[in-house]
Amino acid sequence: MERPKMSIENRAKQFMPFAALKGYPEALAAMEKVIVPKAELSEERADELDRKLREIKNGYMVEIVFYNNDEYEKITGLVSRIDAGSRYIKIVNTKVNFDDIFQIEILKRDAKNF
Question: Residue 76 forms beta bridges with which residues?
């Protein structure tokens, strides 16, 4: 009597990696994250950031360093929206609150020169 053939899917499952502790790699990665406290800006630096934010228009290419989830991130891209009332700037699809901005660099003043 011939044994039925195992499907390709079931055969492949035999060789899949086995995780004895589910979520363990993610837990290790979370423990490796270094928590950075948010820096307090001096009055002069806050004034400089405010001046640059008033200069920026939609279509400008900017580089922004901002505080997000206990660390600083840098994003470079085109400004797709500035909302002074809600106090945020949107770089492509990323919203950044004005209060989280640490540094702004205007790279290009209009999208026509790309």
Answer: 63
Inter-CA distances, 30 with 21, 23, 71, 78, Å:
15, 11, 13, 31
Q: What is d(CA 8, CA 98) in angstroms, rounded to the nearest whole number?
A: 54
Mean pLDDT is lowest, of 20-29, 70-79, 90-99, for 20-29
Q: Using one digit for the tens of pLDDT, what is the confidence trace for 2-42?
A: 777 878 777 777 776 666 778 887 887 777 777 889 999 99
Rounded-to-10 torsion of CA 52, 53, 55, 58: 140
Provide the 8-state DSSP code for 17.
-
* Token pair of 4 as six digits: 């039925």
| Residue that the structure tokens 């502790």 belong to | 21
Maximal C-alpha separation, the chain: 86
Give the whole-angstrom CA distance, residue 86 versus residue 25: 38
Tokens describing residue 73 = 């991130």
